[in-house]
Specification:
The complex is a heterodimer of chains A (268) and B (254).
Chain A (H helix, E strand, L loop, with lengths): L12 E14 L2 E14 L3 E5 L6 H8 L7 E5 L10 E4 L11 H11 L4 H14 L15 H14 L4 E5 L7 H18 L2 E6 L2 H7 L2 E5 L6 E6 L8 H4 L3 H23 L1
Helix pairs in contact in A: 2-3, 2-4, 3-4
Chain B lengths: L1 H26 L11 H14 L1 H33 L1 H14 L8 H8 L3 H26 L2 H9 L4 H38 L5 H10 L3 H29 L8
Classes of the chains: A alpha/beta (268), B mainly alpha (254).
């Protein structure tokens, strides 16, 4: 089996991370958040990243999104092109801008990229339509439900046509039913153009349902401790894969990888 | 909806009831009309003062001073407040000065201002500007600091330049606090302008009240107070209206 880590430096990867470390300057000296993280995500692959709370998953995504600088190591990502971002990040929790309408929120990335007003309106409408919210173009976030707001956030990221889509537990605040709905929608949209996705979650089920491969992260300081491929076909139907014996086996294996780390995280 | 209409009526009933009680006590002889002018007499005085043009003149003078001082104080305050909220170093540089000057009652600086700027309009406009400047400044800064960090990260993750962060995150995010500052400032502006006109002036509502004291025209003093109250109320309504216009995304919160 070709491990993604073996592809590091080959140029095949959509995301190529090698020896990445990050330490925060704490009151009692530096406290490491990530230690020697190495992995790769192939172009067009949907990868999930799971790990115990506080293991540095968000830190990793923020480094990939260019929000913070790593202490050591290298990251290679596709460059941004005119009219196209290298990476777009869907944030955790409430991240629609409350002072903009749904349409302006979706157009926000395009606006910052300097896309002309007419074109960005057009592109924003198209992506708002893709998540089924065209009728709510002029609504402000407080008039939308949590699930609708998260759709707006996803549309905002997709509107910038990123080479890589980074998602930070985007469905964590949703109730179970809405989460299932949004997962289905995300898969449907992803199926259309197969962007490279790195999806952070703490839900084993979510990781299995969505991804081609699950990266397991250790308790803080975070390292990648395992890579588990998901041997389920696409397009996926939750009703079907739930009954697939591979699903249960995979879930058990992931929990096996994760259990020690979660215990370690809760002890520290 | 019904409750809202009921609220509106209740809001009218309390001041109206107070005026009626006041008038009633006066007619019954329980309040001495020579010392405490009844509302009906204040009304007659207001009409008379308006006919002579005296009241519109003094009100006009005060309103002009308030508006000029308000703009002169709040615009730089908002700009500087945003800068202090966004930049740690600007904050570190200016905060000690602000913290030192803010608690000084601004009316205490008024004699100095008159000394430098004379008794004319410049000193009045300046004292209003000065008294609201720090209120608006501190509220604006607090507003920026209170904006959820996620919003700044969103802007940066999508490649925002400093100017974009300023216009799309800091400014709209701080607007609610800016309006809180402006409303508090408007209250202070009224207090200070009337106070300044009492102390040293040749026109304005405060001057009207002070002169009336000197000639023992109690009804005019009451008329001046009533006009001041109405001015304050109008200012609040205007700012509320502006606030709703400036922040359409918040209208349904009320």
């Amino acid at each position: 089996m070709l491990r993604a880590a073996d592809q590091v430096g080959t140029g095949l990867a959509g995301i190529d991370v090698a020896g990445l470390s990050k330490a925060y300057q704490g009151r009692h000296g530096p406290s490491p958040a990530l230690q020697d993280v190495t992995f790769a995500v192939r172009a067009g692959e949907f990868a999930a990243l799971i790990g115990p709370s506080g293991c540095g998953k968000t830190t990793l995504l923020h480094i990939l999104a260019g929000l913070i600088e790593p202490t050591a190591g290298s990251v290679s990502l596709p460059r941004r092109h005119p009219g196209r971002l290298g990476t777009a990040l869907v944030f955790q929790g409430a991240s629609t801008l409350p002072w903009m309408t749904a349409l302006d929120n979706v157009a926000y990335g395009l606006r910052l990229m300097g896309v002309p007003a007419r074109e960005r309106r057009e592109r924003a409408r198209q992506h708002l339509g893709q998540v089924g919210l065209l009728a709510f173009s002029d609504a402000y976030p407080h008039q939308l439900s949590e699930g609708m707001r998260q759709r707006v956030n996803i549309a905002r990221a997709l509107a910038t046509d990123p080479a890589i889509l980074l998602m930070d537990e985007p469905f964590a605040d949703l109730d179970e039913q809405n989460r299932l709905l949004l997962q289905d929608e995300l898969l449907r949209i992803w199926q259309e153009d197969r962007k490279t996705v790195l999806f952070v979650t703490h839900s084993l089920d979510e990781a299995i349902r969505l991804s081609d491969r699950v990266l397991v992260m250790s308790a803080s300081p975070g390292r990648i401790t395992a890579e588990v491929p998901v041997p389920l076909g696409r397009p996926r139907d939750f009703q079907v894969i739930r009954q697939d014996p591979a699903y249960g086996a995979l879930s058990a294996r992931l929990w096996g990888e994760l259990r020690e780390e979660v215990l370690r995280a809760s002890r520290s | 909806m019904k409750a809202r209409i009921a609220d509106r009526w209740l809001a009218v009933i309390s001041p109206l009831g107070l005026l009626l009680l006041w008038e009633g006590l006066s007619r019954a002889g329980l309040l001495d009309a020579r010392f405490i002018t009844p509302p009906s007499a204040i009304g007659r005085t207001l009409v008379a003062l308006t006919r002579t043009g005296e009241l519109p003149y003094h009100v006009g003078v005060s309103v002009e001073r308030i508006i000029a001082g308000f703009l002169l104080g709040s615009i730089p305050a908002v700009a500087l407040g945003l800068a202090m909220g966004l930049s740690r170093s600007v904050r570190a540089l200016l905060m000690p000065i602000v913290a030192a000057i803010y608690p000084i009652p601004k009316i205490a600086i008024y004699p100095l201002i008159i000394f430098y700027l004379g008794i004319g309009e410049a000193s009045k406009v300046s004292i209003v500007a000065l008294s609201i400047f720090f209120l608006v400044l501190l509220n604006t800064m607090a507003g920026v600091l209170g904006v959820d960090r996620t919003y700044f990260n969103i802007a940066r993750a999508y490649g925002a330049q400093s100017i974009d962060v300023f216009t799309t995150i800091a400014w709209p995010g701080a607007l609610p606090s800016i309006f809180t500052g402006l409303k508090l400032g408007m209250g202070f502006a009224l207090i200070v302008i009337v106070g300044a006109e009492l102390l040293g002036s040749d026109a304005g509502i405060g001057f009207l009240i002070w002169r009336s004291y000197q000639i023992f025209a109690i009804d005019v003093m009451f008329a001046g107070l009533l006009v001041t109250a109405v001015l304050g109320w109008l200012a609040t309504i205007t700012l509320d209206w502006l606030e709703r216009r400036a922040m359409p995304w918040r209208t349904e919160h009320k």
